[in-house]
Amino acid sequence: MTQNTQIAIIGTGFSGLGMAIKLKEAGYNDFVIFEQSDDIGGTWHQNHYPGCACDVQSALYSFSFEQNPNWSRMYAQQHEIKAYLKHCAEKYGLMKHIRLNTHVAGARFDETHQRWVVETCDSPTLWAYMQERGVKPGDRLDRTDKGLPEFTTLRADILVSGMGGLSTPAYPEIKGIESFTGKRFHSQDWDHDYDLRGKRVAVIGTGASAIQFVPEVAKQAAKVDLYQRTPPWIMPKPDRAIRPVEKRLFRMFPQTLNAFRQSIYWSLEARVLGFVGNPRILKLGELQARRHIRNQIPDKALRRKVTPDFHFGCKRVLISNNYYPALAQDHVDVVTEGIREVQGNTVIDGQGNKRQVDCIIYGTGFRAQDPIPAGMIFGRNGQDLLDAWKDGAEAYKGTTISGFPNFFMLMGPNTGLGHSSMVYMIESQIQYVLDALQKMRRQQWSSMEVKPDAQSRYNASIHAKLGDSVWQTGCKSWYVNENGKNTTLWPGFTWQFRQQTRRFDAAQYLVRAPESGVSERESALAV
After folding, report:
1. Are 234 and 257 in contact (CB under 8 A)?
2. Where do runs of H (alpha helix) occur along 122-204?
3. Is the dihedral of CA 334, 340, 342, 343 positive or negative?
4. Which of 157, 203, 420, 428 is the most buried (most CB within 10 A)?
5. What is the C-alpha separation between 465 and 497, in angstroms, rounded?
């Protein structure tokens, strides 16, 4: 059965929920939100590993229109952020629009009718199929396989992706990993039923997730081998409980909470001066990070292992107060020789040393360079989005893509941040999308897509600014693809991005009226 809707949204994280809230406020009620999980929350539902928390202050990591005076800590933990998102969905009447356990298997732009044809299926059924076939998240589905679950078709005038860049887990290629006889799982798919007490655990990876869950694992496991490829720079985490008197003040006088939020925002914005303006400023941060290592790790050999050899800020700077103390414990070893192969329950490192383990935990992050799986989004002339991105992901203002009409991405290419809250960027994009939809409604356009030359000029300017940033100083990070192209980060102040996205600039788009061909609208339509 084919169903119809005006707007289809993928995901129920900050992006999807924020977009839906603003649609309702603007009078749009014909929309549906697809969520592949059994509850809302996006990454804050999917990631529930021990120690999971945000590394941006709670007061700023929330919607500006729904500030929360009741955060328990300066840096909220996963369960509290998920509860906040659930509160937003219920308060703004979104639950009736949300379809849980619904996986978007593919979407194709129908040029004849100028609409998107979206295929969905039952998520648990699909995941069971993938596990049986050995298909990993992000892999292309074999549409000729008759064992695939049944698909339902929906047609939508507009398609909005709120999937985010950190949604598809990354797994390392390890020789013999299929022969492993113990338990193994990714941090995003944490198995809380598996008892770590007394176990020998191998953790692979030292990214943002690992530095949060390794201290928790070390509390229970008998032995922890941490396989580190590159150590991150880590700063002290200025976390604390928010005092009852502060909460009362925020509740009674909301302007004080907003002032607190603004003070955090502008203090974080100052970091851009080092990341993009003058990387030498970051030396002050590096000195503090080195002092953090000295203060928390007595052993000089271990200090050398965990001290990065790249510029501070080139990779994501992390914050933690308990990671280094966990590594300094006698039953925790940091292994820097890599993994040669796995044989049964034995992990063999690059030097041939063998270590028996009961459990392998992947702390290897996400496929940030492939935010949308292959075979999922097909635009004009049936072009796969990943083929359009063969040289690296790019979009116009991180939101629209040439060749993909009526398609909007939230948290798209080059909207990521190394210094502040992504919720601020998401709200900026939502305003841009909303203005575009309102212009489409007033002008009665059936479709719109950004001009190829507008997208090219925009990205040329982005990468010119990125060229002098600390992120291009030579380290290997998920910010940069295999060709050395930074497809992830925004090279400037967040208020500059908000200025760019405040109004929809129709002059940079090709638009189609219902009964006419494609025409390039003049600047009069950009008002």
Report:
1. no
2. 123-133
3. negative
4. 203
5. 13
CB within 8 A of 102, min separation 6: which ones?
A: 34, 35, 36, 120, 121, 122, 123
Mean pLDDT of all residues belonging to the chain: 93
Q: What is the mean pLDDT of residues 287-313?
A: 96
What would the mean pLDDT of 347-373 be, rounded to a whole number?
89
What's the CA gap between 225 and 330, in Å, rounded? 11
- pTM of full prediction above 0.90: yes
Pseudo-torsion of CA 418, 422, 424, 430, nearest 10°? Answer: 130
Cβ-based burial of 460 (10 A; exposed 0-12, middle 13-18, buried ≥19): exposed
Cβ of 141: how many Cβ atoms within 10 Å?
A: 19
- Expressed in percent and rounded to 5, the helix, strand and coil fractions of the chain are 35, 20, 45
Token pair for 128: 């069971």
Per-residue pLDDT band for 369 (boundaries 50, 70, 90) equals: low
Q: For residue 13, is pLDDT > 50?
A: yes
